[in-house]
Specification:
About 50% of the residues lie in helices and about 15% in strands. Strands 2-3-1-4-5 form a five-stranded parallel beta sheet, sandwiched between helices. It binds adenosine-5'-diphosphate, shikimate-3-phosphate (S3P) and magnesium ion. Keywords: Amino-acid biosynthesis, Aromatic amino acid biosynthesis, ATP-binding, Cytoplasm, Kinase, Magnesium, Metal-binding, Nucleotide-binding, Transferase.
Length: about 190
């Protein structure tokens, strides 16, 4: 059963965007501000395999990681409500994930310019297997190639030069506005 008949206020909030855009960090802050549970899909995958993502890629390969990613996202999106869910940056490459998330939840795209993103490379490179072995130009190519897949969303937040609190506050206030407009008096 899908959740498309669930009230807007109870729908899960899903964060999408490129690796390092801040989905995990900002998702946690949004969950705290709304008194909701936070789910990080990478963390759920890691719990199931009992190893970090880089090791899952090494031992089982990316295909297995992607299958588990799809299974877990579909399960949360179809069977849970009131959650704040941060996806991994590659999840929306799978059409079925994209469709399920858009149909059952409110999808926020955290967008970050290449100029800002490249400042984060050193912070994220060690545990992002998809970036490993890539030079600067190849990372830029991947960054640009992936931008269009995030363009299907319900709301876009440009995060350049904003701190975590500011971005989370913006998301919360934008949600509250939507809830009040579309579901007043609840
Ligand atoms: N708005 C922000 N300003 C500065 N650093 C940030 C911001 N959002 C996230 N970060 C940092 O960027 C890195 C990647 O964040 P993370 O939440 O893991 O991104 P994602 O889940 O999208 O890969 C972390 O080191 C985090 O502390
Ligand atoms: O973009 C990707 O293909 C990936 C992004 C990662 O998540 P973050 O976007 O949270 O870094 C994680 O799912 C995995 O390393 C693959
Ligand atoms: Mg993350």
């Amino acid at each position: 059963m899908g959740l498309n008949n669930v009230s807007l206020r109870e729908q899960n909030i899903v964060l999408i965007g490129f690796m390092g855009a801040g989905k995990t960090t900002i998702g946690k802050a949004v969950a705290r501000k709304l008194y909701r549970d936070f789910i990080d899909i990478d963390e759920e995958i890691e719990k199931q395999f009992n190893m970090p993502t880089s090791q899952i890629f090494q031992v089982f390969g990316e295909k297995t990681f992607r299958e588990k990613e799809k299974e877990i996202i579909q399960d949360f999106c179809k069977n849970q409500r009131l959650k704040i869910i941060s996806l991994g940056g590659g999840a929306f490459l799978q059409e079925e994930i994209k469709e399920t998330c858009l149909a059952n939840s409110i999808v926020f795209y955290l967008s970050l310019s290449w100029e800002s993103w490249k400042e984060r490379i050193s912070m994220i490179i060690d545990n992002r297997p998809v970036l490993q072995g890539k030079n600067y130009e190849e990372m830029k190519e991947l960054f640009e190639k992936r931008q269009p897949i995030y363009e299907e969303h319900h709301s876009k937040v440009t995060t350049d030069n904003q701190n975590v609190e500011e971005i989370a506050d913006y998301i919360v206030s934008s949600l509250k506005t939507a809830w009040d407009i579309y579901e007043p008096n609840r």
